[in-house]
Amino acid sequence: MEGRTAVQEFAGVLGALHLKAGKPTLDALVRAGRQQVPAVSLSTSSLGDWLKGGSVPSNRAAVGFLFGHLTALARRRGEPVPDVSWTKLWEEARAEKRALRGGRPPRPRVVTAESLAAPAGRGTLVSALQAADACSEWEVHPSAVAASNRGGALPLYVRRAHDAAVRQVVAQAGAGSSGMVVLVGSSSSGKTRACWEAVQELPAGWRLWHPLDPTPAKALADALEEGVAPRTAIWLNELQRYVGESAGEEAERVAAGLRALLQDPERGPVLVLATVWPEYWTAMADRPFMGADRYPQARELLAGRAVHVPSSFDQAVSDDIRAVGAHDPRLAEAMERAADGQITQYLAGAPALTDRYRTAPPGAAALVRAAMDLSRLGGVSRIPPGFLEAAADGYLSDSEYDALGEDWFEQALTYALTPFRGVRGMLSPVRTRPGASDSTPRFLLADYLDQTGRKERRYAAPPASFWQAARRHLVDPQALMSLATAAEARWRDQEAALLYQQVLDSGDTHSALSLEWLWKERGRTEEATRVRRQAALAGHVPALEEHLRELVDAADLAGAEQVLREAADKGVSAAQLILARALAEDDQLDEAARWYDEVARCGDTEVLHAYASDLRSSGDLDRARHILQAAGDRKAARELAFLAAESGSAEEAEKAAMEAFAYGETRPLHLLAQKAATEARSADGVRYYRHAVTVMERRRQLRSTQSGLIDLLAGPRPLTDFINPSKLPMPSGETWALRELVVLLDEVEGQQAGDEALRSAADGENRWALEMLIRRLHERGAGQDGEALVMEKAAEGELWALWTLAHRVRHDATADRAQAQALLKSAAAAGIAQAYAAMVEDAENAGLTEEADQWALRAAAGNYTQPLWNLIRGREKTGSFEKAEQLAWRAAASLGTSVVRQLAAKRSDEAALPLLWRAHEAGMPWAPGMLAMRLEAAGEHTQAEFLARIAADTGDRGPLEVLAEKRACDDPGGSWRALLANGLTAQGTAAPPW
After folding, report:
1. Mind giving me the DSSP string for 525-559?
2. pLDDT tens digit string along 630-648?
3. Could you say which DSSP state residue 953 is in?
4. What is the rounded distance in angstroms from the CA atom of residue 342 to the CA atom of residue 313?
5. What is the pTM of this model?
6. Is the peptide bond before 269 cis (omega within 30 degrees of 0)?
7. Which residue of 32, 249, 488, 522 pairs with 496 in a disulfide if CB–CB is 3.0 to 4.6 A?
8. 44-52 vs 6-20: helix axis angle to the nearest 10?
């Protein structure tokens, strides 16, 4: 806006969005930030300054969270939100602020190397894999049914529908195209066995590698940075250990590294085979209901990768099972005895495990329940025996505990470890791999019982002994952090504070913000300051900045200097840079130089970038280049290219621009090409553009083979409008090189050369190029040639052309309906999302409810949920509530419960209550909280409180907090006020002051 500074403009837009969001309190924003994964560092003082324009955030994650969270709140209130580039606003405001006062270094971020040479291959040659090792090394479930003399280590395999999709990805990898597939299914449904069978078809020379040590996520993250050799199949059983909550801070690093690996043809071919339970898949792959995205990199990585594995064998393969069963008695027995077609579960011993658990003595059952809670709340799959012994007594009644003998733990553990009916025990010892960093004995909970625990104990909060045992026997900061977060979500704030402190004491600063907030919430300022100082000295940059700011605001400059020097002495690189800057400004140049030398040797890329920026500002370009080369990341490649363009030779500028382009930084090469065209060096310009087009087309083609349903953005328009659209369906950021190459070729070689460039890209299935070429032909009066090109490409199976024909015939009143349906089905079979939407709409309009449901569910399984929602909302509007609800429940059975949740959220109280009660009875963890709020509104206060307490035990403390705040106004006994002040005990009563 004219007359306003960039800082004022940023504050104005942020303030307007805050107003549209209903002006949530600053404390509410701080709490929402802490609930993100990873936590977003905010403070009420900083938020106030940002809204007033007094300062600008230094942390991109904080800005992204604020705008995303406030936008979601505003839209929930029905407020229109303008399309504003917060990134541009923030960057301009930050640049303006830094120009005035030097600024602070940005927060360090995790970096993945994208261009390192591959080392020698990891893993085992596929040709050397042995079926006998499938269970021990690759985590395939062994058969619980004894093999006869004719049986091998694994039962004979019967292929199902999902096997074809898996083998297609494997075949593409074997042919040279990197790929990834994720098998999503419940425990013991056959996911790992399907992967094991598929990987056998890889060509000679491929290796299979299972990252595990020191932790699964770190093993993979480190390998991605060091380089993964071509022809490596990466085995990611239990995907959540690599890119989900169990991976902790490594999750997004791994996801980003895998995306880079899969998108770079120069590093392939590689194959990623992953398995995951549906609940983990939903958490990682679905966009959050509101607020910031917890797994943005993982969500992009996983889009279109899912292959759903049914929990039972359908009738279509029953003849195959009988035929194979004639050669393998294990299959024959499973076919005869398994309930509801659950063949794989029977073979894996699920019924036997369940029987063993249901009839276990109290001591053994207590061990298993403690293991269940540790897995579901802490993501710990390898459990130390000391934890089990210490936690178990809280799972026993007084009479059960009194009846235990002196050696109860040994007896209980023996029972839990003992195999039963050919199945490994409820717990099994984990064999330590040679060279593993930790040889402490561990036990693994049978994954079928793990999933049973997640269902049966979802409404149960662990006893006090569980939290105490975790503090005494667990050392992994990520596990402790997960447990602390789970405790806080259940309003067990004292347990959370103790666990957060243990994480911070280990040197991991991820708990600092949450712990500081818990103390602030109770008015314990001294404790909050202590936590902030401890985190600052441990290298938590936001805490360091906030602590320094408070000391400076209090005019305690000596205290600020002391903290800064202490942090710098401890090797906190951000503190070293701030100290060096301050000393230089104070003309203490020798000491400043010493600290700058320390900064130059640090491995923190963001600090190195900040230092390089200082050097560029002071004119020391050679030193700036040296520091950027030390940073060695994508941003450094871009800055080095800009430096070369400013002060290097033409050859240096071209080389640096090409290197930056290899990292994915397009702007330096783009500017170089534009400069060449401006200076009439058209040959150089064409060469630069052709290089960019070649690389970008290769990457686009690779991405297109890994996507789910393809959204062509075609609305109900006539063909002439679609051929000459105002906005082509490919964003300009993906097409700049081809667009500008065509313009340059038109100028120097003629339109025929431009057409040929477009045709070459169109032959590679570039839809934008095909549309542009057709438009050019129409503009030159060669519309018949354009129409012929559409027909030609449709015959070749090109998606845009195929959908164009299907779309035209569908909206042509004179066209044959059978032809229209055939074209639509062909388009749907090709994976075009709009074809699914059209099939849903046509079937619903024709009264074919089941057919409409099937098409909508298929589209949703391909991550295209709009037709499903259109169908549900349409039925709701016409009063077909039962049909809408039936479809929502069908979707929940295969796609997760969010459909039922959103349907309940949109209904009025009276209409929503039956649906919510059913969801609660079905064990959906969000249901008790929503039900409590609806019952409270209906005046059912006792029931509301009962369900709000269940919700808190489930991990949704919000409803109980709302009720406590309402009831605290009329609270003669003070119990509600005590609850608000101190939270809950492990037993669920109001906690005493702590």
Report:
1. HHHHHHHHHHHHHTT-HHHHHHHHHHHHHTT-HHH
2. 888 888 889 999 999 888 8
3. H
4. 6
5. 0.72
6. yes
7. 488
8. 110
